[in-house]
Amino acid sequence: MKKNKLIKYLTAASVLLVSVYFVITSVNFLQPAAFIDLMNYDITFKNVFFNFRIPRIWTAFAIGSALAVSGTVFQALLRNPLADSYTTGVSGGAAFGISLALFTGGGSLSASLYAFGGSILSVVIVYFIQKKFSIFSNVVILAGVALSMIFSSAVMFVYAVSESREVHKAMLWLMGDLSIARYELLPPVFIFIIILSGVLLLYSKHLDIISLGKEYTVTLGISSASIRNIFFCAAVLTSLSVLLGGIIGFIGLMIPHLIRKIFSPKHFILITVSFFCGGIFLAVCDTAGKIAADPFELPAGVMTGFIGGLFFIYSAIRRKS
Amino acid sequence: MNKIEKIFPLIVITAVSAVLLFYARSKYVLSDKIPVISADARIVSLSPSITREILLLDMEPNLAGVTSFCPPLKRDVPKVGNLLNPNIEKIAAINPDILFFSEEDNPSMKFEGLLQSRIPLYKFRRNRTFEDIISNFIILAKITGKHETAGKLLEQIRDDRLKILENRKKEKTGAFFLSSRPLISVSRESYINNILADAGIRNIIADFSNPYPIISVEFLLGSKPEIIFSTDPEADDFFTEIYKKADLKKPEVIIMSPDNVCYYTPSDYIESLKFFYGTVNEKE
Q: Of A22, B85, B112, B205, which one's alpha carbon is 20 to 30 angstroms from that of A180?
């Protein structure tokens, strides 16, 4: 049993190391010596590495971390393994926000802010619904799905009357294209992501209890204020990720599942490991998207969709067998 | 502790919003100044039309990067993504002396990314009229120092256009469709409307604010165009079907090649104008 665990940890550590190396050397697997040579002698390579690659890796890391942590929390909070950071309709709200930004003729920065506003709006709506019915009710998930539908209809309406160029602009954003991320927003947003993940870590014992069900939650004295704060922290984490890089699916769904299987179902470990693994996973997906169809860039959201979808089919088949 | 816990969501949202608003200032502003480049400058063009203009100015050797939509070139020039989704890292790796792109076909979100990248760039304005196309071409000639080549070419093009304008016969109503399913047309905000007008065709879809509006079949049938042009090879079947269904006389449908009309260069303008004018007047 101990040996098995050791093998698991070693495999996970190797995958992480290879991933980090893959992301840093970016376009192809450069030998360390070749990489150092290029850094020393090729100014253009150095500029591209520090001015483009590094900020983008950090952006991907921040988004991935936020999504994985919020996914972990939503799965515990809603006690639904299929819940993820977008279950609360955050993506629909963000898409609606971007569509409004199109109407006002704003650039990517205002699109980010509108997206943040839209996602917070949907979180607030879902919050008031959960307040009426309790977080343990399926109504919360249903309300999130319904909100997403309403928002997507509103988005389609805007697309129907907008210029095709604007629609394409929004599509890139909705596909989670990190090449259009505004890197200047990264430092403050990343700090917020770390703070909110830290707060959720403080609530990890609460999450362990909440995931056991309503009776345990009530009996062991988890206050409704704590539940509300956990809900808001996770939702704001998702909004921050949307604000940075658009809508990127599956990370909040897949990473917690994997971590729970490999490491532990305890939320302190789950949140901590998900934070790092989610970040590294998105950085790898983004890098893979750059290589897969070179010279074209596949948005990171497309890559996570492919990998996440395949992962779930594999999991379903394995569980059945 | 209890009090803080109560107002915690409000604190979080207020703090995040305040910080975002503080950072929400675009630090990247593009200068309006027209740059001048050397004769051996390395150019990356993100617009197929600008690439064609560079070829018109005999500057093909200067091209260091183009999009996958650009016209075939004599030598192998690195591709830097496509028209709407250029690969910014790839462009930076080429380290060009200047990067050209047009407001006409590049989404502004990528444009902001390009501004962030600090690559020297020039953004050409949209082309709504013949004058806009000429003015953008003159700017390109100024940047590249190819005034003489441009001057000669423009003189010929202006003469050709003038001849057509002087010989124009009676006006016809018509429409131009880039696609039939959906019906993507052109309005007065597009340079194609200007070519139609020069050829003596009154565009029934001119009065839309969107340059390439999607219109309904009902609108088309109600507008009764006398002639329809389209670059969509399946357009003729589509229009035959809808006019038959509506029991109306089908207008003349001309399927044309997208080789010229989809590019906003002076020479493509005049070639398209000759085609439209020729088609309308042949039938007179």
A: A22
